[in-house]
Design goal:
Distance between the termini: 35 Å
Number of strands: 9
Number of domains: 1
Structural class: mainly beta
Order of helices and strands: HHEEEEEEEEE
Shape: elongated
Number of helices: 2
Amino acid sequence: MHYLNVCGVATFVIALAAAAPNAVAQENSLKYTCQDVGNFALEPLGDREGHAISVGQFSCRAVSGPMSGALLTGSIIWEWDKTNAVLVSGSGVVRKPGATAVYQDQEGKLALTMADGKVTGFIATGRVSYRVGAGEAAALAGKSFAFTAKSTGPGQYEIEDKAE
């Protein structure tokens, strides 16, 4: 179950998706580059092979959209069944001078990608909703976004949020 260390991703991926933009009406899509913070080790649950949880923290930078330049910090918990995971919990805060937003993950799925029996990365999808938006991010409060995430290297990934 060392595959998470290779991808470093689960933290991810998802929670980050939450880092959506403040001016929702201006732009329907945002992109983030992210990385895991610290170790993202699997914790086997012992009831069956491949059943585990992972708990992680991550940090992202908004690279496009109205919140461009903002920093996202978050945490996430995944439940694993071998190479697939379901989101248990995730949340985060997106900050930029004059704008702050808080999001909560609503749902998510993650699948490791494999080649020749080795983990090469991951792909994740899900939904987040913004619970708080202040300053330039006030328009995010109460909004939902669909996200997709994919790995770009060990412990690194990209997230794209699209307004629903």
